[in-house]
Design goal:
The complex is a heterodimer of chains A (about 280) and B (about 140).
Chain A: E1 6-10, H1 18-29, H2 46-80, H3 84-110, E2 116-120, H4 134-163, H5 167-200, H6 202-223, H7 234-237, H8 244-264, H9 270-275
Antiparallel strand pairs in A: 1-2
Chain B: H1 5-15, H2 95-98, H3 121-124
Classes of the chains: A mainly alpha (about 280), B little secondary structure (about 140).
């Protein structure tokens, strides 16, 4: 583990031409009109406002940290000599996370807050899976981040969006979800790329399935909230606040109903790995 | 049995990304209008993205993973949530609801524990670590001994 490095994360831009270059990038990649519907803060219960603002501030931190995962994974794809589009899209996905950091910061400011948060800014090195060949190493990391983690994120966003009535929050959630869709799909597309290699190396398929036994157990610890759950006010849920009880339901349904069968399409016995999930290290 | 929209959406992404001829993806490689036969989603309700109760939601239809996305005019889900804000004043949360009384009451909810690099809820200053978005760092696992 890298030593913690406390600092203040700020979703702020510089006063240099770099800000204009960033705006060009944003304009080129945005899938949802960036201008949100109006937001009347006076119409929102102050307690709800505080809770929602804190959640978006938390999202800002997590999105920023997520960019380090995809940016390191892009380096692994380069080392793997993956097709150029796979390398480029992974770079784009890292950029998406930085864009989302900005989006979350915008929301925090719109809600009357300050888009800064003290946090650990240390970059944790991406898993290297000692002794595992580069082809499988990249596959492991791609599958975990996209077909497991980001697919759950998509499902959760979809669930939250369905009950979010406030147009402003719907709009901002959709800005994030629009990119998460690509992130979740990346791993399945990458499996198409690596299918010939996997078919030629059945022993690596077995190793990959062993990894999934471990990975499913870890992600369950990370993303399946455990009861008892707080009972959240309906008004807060209508603003798009996360609901841990819902998140738990979404996690298990997604793992069993989407991730595992999705990986099985490629000859990976993910349903069995899910059933037998346990930490191996 | 009713399949929630979020699951139909996730299944479409997982089962139909790129492989057109697989069971469950008849005649299309679209994540937007396909799914498992058990789900049998009709084109209007397959993509949760198409749930567009307000006019401004429409542009997201262009984000559907492939060109098989429904047309922007698709009004699926239009009867869902209303376009206007619902009153938000009736149900102020208690301290426990928001965690303001207990700074990390739900740490054991599962978010933030483990070794995958998720900041602890105490680190985020949140009552529980629910705003987990973006990829988690994958766990390490060396090769077989």
């Amino acid at each position: 583990m890298t030593e913690p490095s406390r600092g203040v994360l700020r979703a702020a831009l510089s006063d240099t031409p770099l800000a204009a270059e960033r705006a060009l990038l944003e304009a080129g990649l945005q899938r949802v009109e960036p201008a949100p519907p109006p937001l009347d803060l006076m119409a929102i219960d102050p307690a709800h406002l505080h809770a929602v603002r804190e959640q978006w501030l938390g999202r800002m931190v997590v999105e920023h940290r997520s960019s380090t995962v995809f940016s390191q994974l892009a380096q692994q794809l380069i080392a793997r000599n993956a097709p150029l589009d796979a390398q480029a899209v992974m770079m784009r996905m890292a950029l998406d996370e930085l864009r989302h950091t900005g989006t979350c910061g915008e929301v925090v400011v719109a809600l009357g807050g300050v888009a800064e948060k003290e946090t650990d800014l240390a970059v944790q090195p991406l898993a290297e899976h000692r002794g595992v060949p580069i082809e499988e190493r990249v596959l492991r990391n791609v599958l975990y981040t996209t077909t497991l983690s980001e697919l759950v994120a998509c499902a959760r966003f979809a669930a939250v969006l369905e009950r979010t009535e406030h147009p402003y929050f719907r709009h901002q959630l959709r800005r994030l979800l629009a990119d998460e869709v690509l992130h979740a799909q990346f791993g399945f597309y990458y499996l198409m790329i690596e299918r010939p290699w996997l078919e030629a190396h059945p022993e690596r398929l077995a190793s990959l399935e062993r990894y999934l036994v471990h990975a499913f157990a870890v992600i369950e610890e990370e993303l399946a909230p455990k009861p008892p759950f707080p009972r959240l006010p309906e008004g807060l849920l209508r603003l798009g606040h996360e609901d841990p009880a819902e998140a738990r339901e979404v996690f298990y349904a997604t793992m069993e109903g989407a991730t595992a069968p999705g990986l099985a399409r490629f000859g990976i016995d993910a349903p069995r790995a899910w059933r037998e999930r346990r930490r191996l290290a | 049995m009713h399949t929630p929209r979020y699951l139909r959406f996730a299944r479409a992404l997982a089962l139909c990304s790129g492989l057109a001829s697989l069971p469950g993806c008849p005649g299309t490689d679209s994540a937007a209008d396909a799914g498992d036969p058990l789900d049998a989603p009709s084109p209007p309700d397959a993509p949760v993205l198409a749930d567009a109760p307000v006019e401004n939601d429409a542009p997201l239809l262009a984000d559907a993973p492939t060109s098989d996305a429904p047309a922007p005019g698709d009004d699926a889900g239009a009867e869902d949530a209303g376009a206007e804000d619902a009153p938000l004043v009736a149900d102020a949360p208690t301290a426990n609801d928001t965690g303001s009384g207990d700074p990390c009451a739900s740490c054991d909810c599962g978010f933030g524990v483990g070794d995958a690099g998720v900041p602890a809820c105490s680190d985020l200053g949140l009552p529980f670590c629910c705003p987990v978005v973006g990829p988690l760092a994958p766990p390490d696992l060396p090769a077989w001994a």
